[in-house]
Amino acid sequence: MEYKITLSSKTIIMSVALILLQTFSLQTLGYDSNIPDDLDLEDEILQLLGGGIRNEYFVDIYHVSLYSDAKSIEEIQRADISHHVAIRIKILTDILPDTPPPYWMNLFCEILNQKQFELFTDSYSKLNNGDVLAINYIPGKGTDIFMKKKKLLVIKENYLIAAVVKSFIGANPVSDDLKDSILKS
């Protein structure tokens, strides 16, 4: 008896294999999808407003959590953010590309100067499974970007945090599924 595997059968088999591999690796690493309900930052406790997982091709890439002292997520969706906002992005895979995805490259290229942009992209290339990229905005002080618990950049203006928030929950987000997850949580 001879079996012929068609392209669609190969695709289905590969998809099932990837799903099983991802499930096994998450269980092996002890992946915990729970995220803190609040963050204690700069002597202020910020409440979780929403979170979700960004995935591509059956692979969970990162978990993003939005925290603020605002009462609702709508208060931080405005361009003139007047609340303390922290964004916590936990990497969930070891197969990140060496450079940020095009969406992030375009966003940060427009906002950061050349030296800051190079530092950001170089540091991004060193992120691994379990590492955290954190962005902390305090009105009147600016935005701090942390990678692996080390302060990487300080931006005095508020346009960075507004652009990053917009990239997750704005009109044209990096992922519609991620946006829906953040807004519904």
What would you note in describing this structure?
By secondary structure, the chain is α+β, with helices and mostly antiparallel strands. It has two domains: 1-31; 36-184, Chalcone isomerase (3-Layer(bba) Sandwich), CATH 3.50.70.10. 35% of the residues lie in helices and 29% in strands. The protein has helices at 7-29, 102-111, 114-124, 159-169, 176-184; strands at 38-41, 44-56, 59-68, 85-91, 132-138, 142-147, 150-155. Strands 1-2-3-4-5-6-7 form a seven-stranded antiparallel beta sheet. β1 (38-41) and β2 form a beta hairpin. α2 runs antiparallel to α3 and α2 (102-111) runs antiparallel to α4 (159-169). The chain is globular and about 35 Å long. The N and C termini lie far apart (52 Å). Mean pLDDT is 81; it is low at 20-32.
Task: Produce a short descriptive summary.
By secondary structure, the chain is of the alpha+beta class. It has 5 helices and 7 strands, in the order H-E-E-E-E-H-H-E-E-E-H-H. The chain has helices at 7-29, 102-111, 114-124, 159-169, 176-184; strands at 38-41, 44-56, 59-68, 85-91, 132-138, 142-147, 150-155.
